[in-house]
Amino acid sequence: MRMHYLQHEPFEALGVIADWATDRGHAVSSTLLYIDSKLPDPAAFDLLVVMGGSMNIYEHEAYPWLPAEKAFIGTSIEAGKAVLGICLGSQLVADVLGGPVVRNAQREIGWYPVEFTAGLDVPVFSHFPAGFTTLHYHGDTFAIPPGAVHVASSAACANQAFAYAGGRVVGLQFHPEVSRASLGLLVENAPPPVSPDEAWVQTAEELLAPAAPFEAGNALLYELLDRMLATLV
User: Fold this and answer.
1) What are the C-alpha distances in Å from 180 to residues 66, 183, 186, 213?
2) pLDDT, tens only, 164-194
3) Is 118 exposed, middle or buried (0-12, 13-18, 19+ CB in 10 A)?
4) Helix ranges (DSSP H) in 2-87
5) How many CB atoms lie within 10 A of CB 13?
6) Alpha-carbon gap, residue 127 to 34, rounded angstroms
7) Helix, strand or coil for residue 37?
């Protein structure tokens, strides 16, 4: 299989998705939008992964490649590709499918539980537990697109995940792809705000604590990606 990914900032890359692709022997290509906005023909890949970033998806003037990226995501979905969006990526996919993105009631930055709803009935998510603790690093949130299944929520954010087209297209607001190294790079370049008024924001020390549960999310993501590719067979 062939995977292409879209990266929006140098400090928010694939994380363990790169390890998954290596372990499975998949070919990997990329578009680093902060350097070059040239996008491939969807015929060149089977799986599209859209990564996170600190920008809002409607900041077209500041990030002029955003409209073309959205059109490309839409074309990829229409072409029958498997598409995974994470954080900003999930918001871009939701917007393309008709689910607007707005400011969440509060920023959510830290290790917090997500709970799974009817989405566990979608085969690509059926291996997930009823809930687990994962990393969050966002201020915006998406609406569930028309025709998509609401999969997960958290105490701070109602819409944490959705599945579309039988699970061929998935949006994850949370970050199961992070490793300790990739999270360290994110914290260094986009440090969490320090404010006593932010109930759902952890400190850098809490984010990188020795007991932070990276492995659980990583394992679930490996299986999710395998199952998403199986929808293409």
Assistant:
1) 29, 5, 10, 10
2) 999 999 999 999 999 999 999 999 999 998 8
3) exposed
4) 16-24, 66-78
5) 19
6) 35
7) coil
Distances (CA, A) of 98 to 91, 94, 101, 170, 212: 10, 6, 10, 14, 35
Residue type, 180: R
Cα 201 from Cα 24, distance rounded (Å): 35
* pLDDT confidence tier of residue 123, bands split at 50, 70 and 90: very high
Instruction: Kindly report whether the global pTM for this prediction surpasses the value 0.85.
Output: yes
CATH domain 2-230 topology: Rossmann fold (3.40.50)
Active-site positions read 87, 175, 177
Give residue limits of the domains in the chain: 2-230
* Per-residue exposure over 66-81, b if at least 16 CB sit within 10 Å of its own CB, e if not: beebbebbbebbeeeb
